[in-house]
Amino acid sequence: MLENIRQAFISLRANKLRSGLTLLGIVVGVFSIIGVMTALGALTNSVDSSLSQLGAETFTVKKWPSLQLGGSDWKKYARRKPITYEQIKFVRQNTTLPLAVSAENMYAPLTVAFGNEKSDPQFQLYGSDENYSTNHSWDLAKGRMLTAADVQYGRDVTVLGQDIVDRVFKHGEDPIGQTIRMNDHNYQVIGVFERKGGGMGQSQDGFALIPITNEIKYFIQQEYTSLQMTIRARSKAEFDETQDEIIGALRSVRGDKPGAENDFEVENNTSLTIQFDSFSKYLKNIGFGISAIALLAASIGIMNIMLVSVTERTKEIGIRKALGATKVDIAGQFLTEAVVLCLVGGLIGIGIGIGIGNILALLIHASVFVPMFWVFVGLGVCALVGMFFGLYPALKAANMNPIDALRFE
Q1: What is the per-residue pLDDT for 237?
Q2: I want to staple 366 with a disulfide (CB 3.0 to 4.6 A). Which of 56, 142, 215, 361 is the partner?
Q3: Which pLDDT belongs to residue 178?
Q4: How would you write the chain as a 3-class SS string?
């Protein structure tokens, strides 16, 4: 076996261009599936980490689902009425089980300026209320959080994420009490959030928080904008009961008919995980499809190359048989060569797939990931491809008549 492997590498080196072109199909096939699985694994870890920060007691209500696969339900979602601030106030006033209910909306892009410093339009503006930090587990580094009075009067005040502070307060100024300009409006900084770092593929600290009523006044048209409602239950034990109470109150204020399905989405960690898993299956299927096509083309190429190799080495086969080599010896030599060819291509594809997959992961601020299960699957598939498509050429070589082989020119 060791001699067969050595001879296989000698054959690869002797026919570099031909071997390289044959390996290309294997490399593309393995790279496509390993690259997809690496990127998905890194993204899944990032999503799981971000969802865990929401807490098991928190869920959201919104018009559109966070992940939408296919376009069949697009019209159904578009026909839904927007969730308004008045509806969220009604839910808050007519429910007793939730620990906190917050109205939320994200606006982007946001440009922030202070003095001579002005950012690119790279940040996000969140409108919410005094319950935002409770529902999203945010702590303050300094200053204070929004109050009910800030929201009631739509005051021009803001709590900043650390990325904005780092960008516009570059000379060590204390942000608290300073007036900054966000797009075309001036705001007084009343607080700064603790740094949270990356999540969901991007920094979580590049935002400013203002009262939702202020955002409705300056930044959005309420009749065309659907708000999100975030709710925290008092405990895991009361989660389902709290969710049912929220749904009932919202259906009541929106006038949903009894028996009709909800015309809004209710999402929690479990439902978001299910949605993401469904989304990742699409990407996995695409990877499998590309891999299967590339491997099929490469397999045909491998069989063709091995048949050419058998023809080129007919005299060698005759000499080996004349010196006592058995059919098993001859078949083993060419079968090993086919398997080695596939495994070399597989290893190159795995290396490129892990490398590019993790480069993509780093670009979206996800952690590095190595899909070990799929690495072994890829190597196993390559070995099987080599054995299956190298079998016919190997048997053809093994069954040669030594006399005819020695006469071959």
Answers
A1: 86
A2: 361
A3: 96
A4: CHHHHHHHHHHHHHCHHHHHHHHHHHHHHHHHHHHHHHHHHHHHHHHHHHHHHHCCCEEEEECCCCCCCCCCCHHHHHHCCCCCHHHHHHHHHCCCCCCEEEEEEEEEEECEEECCEECCCCEEEEEECCCHHHHHCCCEEEECCCCHHHHHHCCCEEEECHHHHHHHCCCCCCCCCCEEEECCEEEEEEEEECCCCEECCEECCCEEEEEHHHHHHHCCCHHHCCCEEEEECCCHHHHHHHHHHHHHHHHHHHCCCCCCCCCCEEEEHHHHHHHHHHHHHHHHHHHHHHHHHHHHHHHHHHHHHHHHHHHHCHHHHHHHHHCCCCHHHHHHHHHHHHHHHHHHHHHHHHHHHHHHHHHHHHHCCCCCCCCHHHHHHHHHHHHHHHHHHHHHHHHHHHCCCHHHHHHCC
Dist CA 263 CA 118 (whole Å): 42
Q: What's the Cα-to-Cα distance from 69 to each of 74, 249, 271, 283, rounded to whole Å?
A: 10, 29, 14, 11
Full-model pTM: 0.64
Quick one: pLDDT at residue 70? 55
Q: In this predicted structure, what is the pLDDT of residue 288?
A: 76
Judge whether 367 and 42 are in contact, CB under 8 Å.
yes
Give average pLDDT by consecutive 10-residue segment, the chain, 409 residues: 75 75 81 82 69 70 76 77 94 94 94 94 95 92 96 96 94 93 95 81 85 94 89 89 94 90 84 67 76 79 80 80 84 84 88 87 74 87 86 84 71
